[in-house]
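User: Please predict the structure of the protein below. I'd like the answer in structure-token form so I can feed it into my own downstream comparison script.

Assistant: Understood. Taking the following sequence of 162 residues as input:
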Amino acid sequence: MNDYKIPAQTHIGHVHLKVSDLQKSLDFYCGLLGFEKMVMYGDQAAFISAGGYHHHIGLNTWHSKGASPAPEYASGLYHTAILYPERKDLAIILKRLIDARYNITGASDHGVSEAIYLNDPDQNGVELYWDRPKEQWPVDQEGNLTMFTRRLDIENLLQLAN
């Protein structure tokens, strides 16, 4: 049983979030972050995507319409991570967030990636990031991956947004 490894080509297909107000969530994920609406189930659920996939994110109010955010100190989803293809794409969304005066809760350089952190309207954590090419990932003398958390050079990143 311990010798099983999930196939290397496996990907996380989508995340489905309980939200309190579907329109506010659509305004955030589609209006601000730029996802496209693929399917609506009345006024209770929406499926959104990047690039025309059937859905990367599901949003629903089936058990959460008008509900308060989940408690910060409870089990549950820490954040949804949205991977951008290029560093310039991360720079563009960062500039968009700044221009919209949207609250950014953090920004980090992890060696393997650069990330921007924020919360959606229901206080679900969202990480927007890009991965450095694998050959640039930090490793120790034995070749072991050595991730870290350092201050993201936002000024340097924003130079790509123009």
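That's the full token string. The beta strands are 15-18, 36-41, 45-49, 57-60, 79-84, 104-109, 113-119, 125-131, 150-151.
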